[in-house]
Amino acid sequence: MAVPEKQEFEDICIRCGGCCGIFDGDPCEHLRRDNEGTTYCTVYENRFGSHRTLTGRVMECVPIMDKLSEDWIGDHICAYKRKYLDQE
């Protein structure tokens, strides 16, 4: 599967927060919403690795391409899953 250049790749994301746990009720501690309701990561440039959820559970932030074969609550919304899994 060919991955586009970085900015083009970043532009695919609709910032739903699903891969960060927003739909399971225990999201990453760094996930926030802006005034329009779009989610964003407060440590985005340094996001990969271990973090905690709001309840203190340890979670691993990994590149989204590593998560595409996994299922998570709300993953049907993920633009990456729709784009890349539909191509297989």
What does this structure look like?
There is one protein chain. This protein has 88 residues and is of the alpha+beta class. It has one domain. 20% of the residues lie in helices and 16% in strands. It has helices at residues 6-12, 64-67, 79-85, and strands at residues 31-33, 39-41, 49-52, 58-61. Strands 1-2 form a two-stranded antiparallel ribbon. It has a two-stranded antiparallel ribbon with strand order 3-4. Strand 3 (49-52) and strand 4 form a beta hairpin. The longest helix is centred in the first third of the chain and has 7 residues, at 6-12.
Largest sheet: 2 strands, antiparallel
What is the quaternary state of this protein?
single chain
- How many DSSP E strands? 4
Question: What is the global morphology?
Answer: globular
The spatial strand order of the largest sheet comes to 1-2
N-to-C SSE series? HEEEEHH
Low-confidence stretches: none
Coarse structural class: alpha+beta
Strand content: 15-25%
